[in-house]
Write a sequence for this structure.
């Protein structure tokens, strides 16, 4: 289905489930056409079928694994050759490695960094020039509340990468100021999705109180509103905003010890 050139188009990575799928739905609700990518082709096609049922929504599916270092360039080339443009980019693809730093071999860490960090930066670098040229762009980097808090033992690279995404987004936001390009770091806390099933911590985190959780659609709506409004860092949910505020106001040593105690309870 050709894209109406009067409409905006968003590229969503990791769109097959969770926050990525929810963000695709929210952008579709706001009259964006969609380019969806993730590893699981069947999941992508199911979402595309759902969203094509919406009035005038064009959906393009490009299954790909961002762990392959050549994928960002090949994906961008496919998009350009298809006559599509990327007006908005959602860097959402991601996962976490459970256990301590030495529990995983270097190939696993390298794959993780490729998906979570290198692919994000490269995809942004590929689409940003055209955004600047057109004077319009929206970049939503799905970070985490973990990226704003002290690091804890285990899942060692996750918070470090998410912290990078916050700083990266802040710098891009400044570079895009006055040029029509908004960049936002979306920082959700615990979110109902497949995330904890994949990293093997579902049983542990399920013991956490329900008031600490948000559903993916709520996170997606808050992320969409934040990037459209030009908010640079968006922490989702009242509880998460209180936790973040406490991290900035309490003595560093005290808050660090509090984080360590909580991490021992809920991390495998």
């Amino acid at each position: 289905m050709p894209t109406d050139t009067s409409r905006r188009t968003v590229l969503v990575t990791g769109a097959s489930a969770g926050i990525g799928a929810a963000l695709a739905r929210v952008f579709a609700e706001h009259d964006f056409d969609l380019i969806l990518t993730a590893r699981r082709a069947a999941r992508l096609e199911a979402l595309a079928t759902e969203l094509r049922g919406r009035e005038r929504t064009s959906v393009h599916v490009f299954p790909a694994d961002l762990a392959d270092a050549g994928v960002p360039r090949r994906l961008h080339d496919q998009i350009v050759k298809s006559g599509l443009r990327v007006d908005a980019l959602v860097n959402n693809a991601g996962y976490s490695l459970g256990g301590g730093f030495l529990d995983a071999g270097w190939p696993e860490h390298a794959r993780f960094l490729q998906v979570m960090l290198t692919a994000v930066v490269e995809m942004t670098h590929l689409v940003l020039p055209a955004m600047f040229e057109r004077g319009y762009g929206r970049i939503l980097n799905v970070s985490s509340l973990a990226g704003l808090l002290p690091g804890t033992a285990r899942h060692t690279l996750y918070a470090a990468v998410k912290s990078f995404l916050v700083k990266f987004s802040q710098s891009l936001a400044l570079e895009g100021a006055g040029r029509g390009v908004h960049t936002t770091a979306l920082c959700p806390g615990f979110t109902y999705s497949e995330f904890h099933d994949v990293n093997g911590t579902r049983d542990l985190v399920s013991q956490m109180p329900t008031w600490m959780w948000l559903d993916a659609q709520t996170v997606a709506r808050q992320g969409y509103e934040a990037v459209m409004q030009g908010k640079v860092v968006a922490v989702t949910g009242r509880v998460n905003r209180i936790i973040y505020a406490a991290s900035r106001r309490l003595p560093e040593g005290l808050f660090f010890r509090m984080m360590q105690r909580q991490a021992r309870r809920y991390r495998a």
Summary: The beta strands are 9-13, 33-37, 59-61, 88-91, 137-142, 181-187, 190-192, 213-215, 233-235. The two ends are 46 Å apart (CA to CA). The longest helix spans residues 106-134.
